[in-house]
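Milestone 3.1: sequence recovery, worked example.
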């Protein structure tokens, strides 16, 4: 499957906003948005105003880049959100937030969603006591997320234990700090989403 492999900081500069794709680096002076906030590539002599269509595309791309999802997969999530009752935009963001790789990131097990995706793909994470290597798996209420027994002996895990106490866990998740076992206390709500995206623009983009 195709995957973006170039410098991810270019995605932030292209979106005009920090997408938190590099973990702790995004909070440091080394962040590309701090050093070079302009879009990548040659700059036009006169700045053009984005059209309504351009704004919709930008917001859709911001959501895709933030969660590390390809276009085809993002369309499937949008189609599923439309089938559900309620507001399509809110349904979409809840579905994206329920992805296993995002939950691993939000629990503080990884510094970025890309790193969390790699942990899941390499089989380090257990979902309800079973090894799961599918980053797009959707968690449900009362699901537990833990580490595989052998993975708790790795150097990464040993370095994670002292650093995770300083991380902020969202209210819809709970974490046993001693055993590093997370639980989905409730499904996320729109207020729990940390990514700032105009979801109405995404709906308008796919409703053309």
């Amino acid at each position: 499957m195709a995957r973006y492999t170039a410098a991810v900081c270019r995605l932030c500069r292209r979106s005009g906003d920090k997408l938190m794709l590099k973990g702790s680096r995004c909070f440091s002076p080394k962040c590309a948005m701090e050093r070079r906030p302009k879009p990548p590539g040659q700059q036009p002599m006169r700045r053009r105003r984005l059209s309504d269509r351009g704004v919709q595309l930008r917001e859709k791309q911001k959501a895709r880049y933030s969660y590390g999802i390809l276009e085809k997969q993002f369309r499937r999530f949008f189609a599923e959100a439309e089938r559900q009752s309620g507001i399509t935009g809110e349904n979409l963001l809840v579905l994206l937030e329920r992805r296993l790789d995002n939950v691993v990131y939000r629990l503080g097990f990884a510094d970025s969603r890309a790193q969390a995706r790699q942990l899941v793909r390499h089989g380090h994470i257990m979902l309800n006591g079973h090894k799961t290597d599918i980053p797009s798996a959707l968690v449900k209420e009362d699901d537990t997320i833990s580490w595989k027994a052998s993975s708790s002996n790795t150097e990464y895990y040993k370095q994670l234990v002292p650093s995770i106490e300083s991380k902020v866990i969202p209210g819809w998740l709970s974490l046993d700090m001693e055993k590093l076992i997370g639980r989905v206390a409730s499904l996320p709500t729109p207020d729990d989403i940390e990514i700032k995206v105009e979801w109405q623009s995404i709906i308008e983009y796919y409703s053309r």
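The chain has a mean pLDDT of 83. The longest strand covers residues 144-147.
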